[in-house]
Design a protein that fits this description.
196 residues, mainly alpha, Hypothetical protein af1432, 0% strand
């Protein structure tokens, strides 16, 4: 079929936060880019500060493609996905079928290169770092909504922060302590910070 790349371009049409009133809509493409950028940072922190040896390129590519199945499945809201084990298991089956369908859409001579990116990573360190980056991206969205006066994300912000802290990853903690405060600033404040 060879339509994989055209399908990937449609990630920008898949809306996130379907159950929430957003002051600014967010799509899967922009979310995936942010997760990839944060994953890169978390990997560098792991390797440079915390004695790790993570394959940064593999981790970033895992992040880029982590939500590709949502092209077919749409974004399942977290409260629905995890409401009941049966729902979660059914969603995993739907996601698996979506991954298989997407894999078939890749040119045959390229499938071997892309197949690992559509599967769960076999590296538990990378899986944790991408998951943390995914949660940090969600937290940033909650902060942006709160800053725009939208209180609908208040509980999501609290729950997401608790989930990140519960991961007990030093890289995520470093992000929260050192970098997250900058997401509270305006563009002018950020510009002045960089000027100092």
């Amino acid at each position: 079929m060879d339509s994989f790349f055209a399908l990937c371009s449609r990630m920008k049409y898949v809306a996130r936060w379907g159950l929430m009133k957003s002051s600014r809509p967010e799509n899967v493409a922009e979310h995936s880019l942010e997760v990839a950028i944060i994953t890169h940072l978390l990997c560098e922190l792991r390797n440079r500060r915390f004695g790790g040896n993570v394959d940064v390129s593999k981790a970033v590519l895992t992040a880029v493609y982590h939500d590709v199945p949502e092209i077919i499945t749409g974004d399942m809201p977290t409260p629905v996905k995890y409401y009941d084990p049966k729902i979660n298991e059914a969603y995993k089956n739907v996601e698996k079928a979506a991954k298989e369908r997407l894999l078939e859409a890749i040119p045959e001579d390229l499938r071997e290169a892309y197949a690992p990116l559509l599967e769960e990573t076999d590296d538990p360190e990378i899986a944790k770092l991408v998951k943390a980056a995914d949660k940090l991206s969600a937290l940033i969205k909650c902060i942006e909504e709160r800053r725009s006066g939208n209180t609908d994300f208040r509980d999501a912000e609290r729950a997401t922060l608790e989930a990140i802290r519960g991961m007990k990853l030093p890289e995520a903690e470093a992000f929260l302590e050192e970098l997250l405060p900058f997401y509270e600033l305006t563009l002018d404040e950020l510009t002045r910070q960089n000027g100092n």
